[in-house]
Amino acid sequence: MKFCSECGHGVALAIPDGDNRPRHVCIQCGTIHYQNPKMVIGSIPVWEDPENDGALQVLLCRRAIEPRHGYWTLPAGFMENGETTSEAAVRETEEEAGAHIEIGKLFTLLNVAHVHQVHMFYLARLLDLDFAPGEESLEVQLFTEQDIPWDDLAFPTIRKTLELFFADRVKIRESHDKQGYGVHCHDIVRPMIAPREPD
Amino acid sequence: MKFCSECGHGVALAIPDGDNRPRHVCIQCGTIHYQNPKMVIGSIPVWEDPENDGALQVLLCRRAIEPRHGYWTLPAGFMENGETTSEAAVRETEEEAGAHIEIGKLFTLLNVAHVHQVHMFYLARLLDLDFAPGEESLEVQLFTEQDIPWDDLAFPTIRKTLELFFADRVKIRESHDKQGYGVHCHDIVRPMIAPREPD
């Protein structure tokens, strides 16, 4: 930020009265420009194949945009003004995967503090198989747990969410008290883009 | 937003290529200025009085700033870049109430879409009684459930969080399977500032 979005004059870093950290403050009109973390919201679209003993598959998108062009992700994107978190999850799933879902519960809330983001993923039930890549996806595909491209996932929050999802599946199958999916909050402290393992 | 924060020229509303909603776009340098919801994060600081049979009290702050000057709130504020959601809850509790807490689990996630905010409150255990109002508080006080100033709470998300907290307390006391606090996600659709009842 170099200029004031209200009056067009220059901004300078200064600690406003009553504040305790530097902000971009307009040298002309005094407007304080706060910068705050953003939310990235997505879904875990699940298809339980009725013709294959209910075998579970998850819908992933291969990214057509940077960062991480060509890598696989759950459908997700920046939350917009005027919508709720679950509305954002439904919209992003529609936009990126052309997929129609019944949205479920919040499943993960993952802090990615070093990039000023909070990622949230909702459980979701895919309503039909009528999906197709949107503008930001190269392809969209259903994967069983065994087939998920674990080494080609776009972001640590995608891996974490999928790992937690399949771990909860095991617990749900094994539990005798009809335990449901949890809500999982974690902090991602590694870099967003993990270096690839050497061949 | 009237001016580009990158080059200082004017901005105009336009739908960028590949996008589907109007954004502020610089007419000179083409920078797209996205506007996204903000997170307001706080805590429910709980004191269980060891000298009074563990009677539970919650710490509230009376606001010294607008909006809702003079009304009672849980300590909360805008999340800052570079911190996690629970770090934000600890910091706001320290800043607004001068209170030291052990942070617990996420308890509420409340969408307030019409003001482009998501509010989150964490369970917290007050570590000592050495609290004092910060710059944004007129006073800070412990309240039992019966004493909470229900008609003078600052925001619907504060009321909702406190209602859910005390409802979960009842369930926890009555449950025989050591049920814990839940994670509650709701959308607040009424106006943020409720009109006062006529005298």
UniProtKB/TrEMBL annotation, chains A, B:
Stated EC number for the protein is 3.6.-.-
Q: Which InterPro entries match?
A: Nudix_hydrolase (IPR020476), NUDIX_hydrolase-like_dom_sf (IPR015797), NUDIX_hydrolase_CS (IPR020084), NUDIX_hydrolase_dom (IPR000086), Nudix_N (IPR029401)
SUPFAM superfamilies linked:
Nudix
- Entry keywords, A to Z: Hydrolase, Magnesium
Q: Secretion signal: which residues?
A: none
Nudix hydrolase domain ranges (all copies):
37-166
A Pfam family annotated for this chain is: NUDIX
Instruction: Please report which protein family the annotation says this sequence is part of.
Output: Belongs to the Nudix hydrolase family.
Record's protein name: NUDIX hydrolase
Origin organism is Massilia niabensis
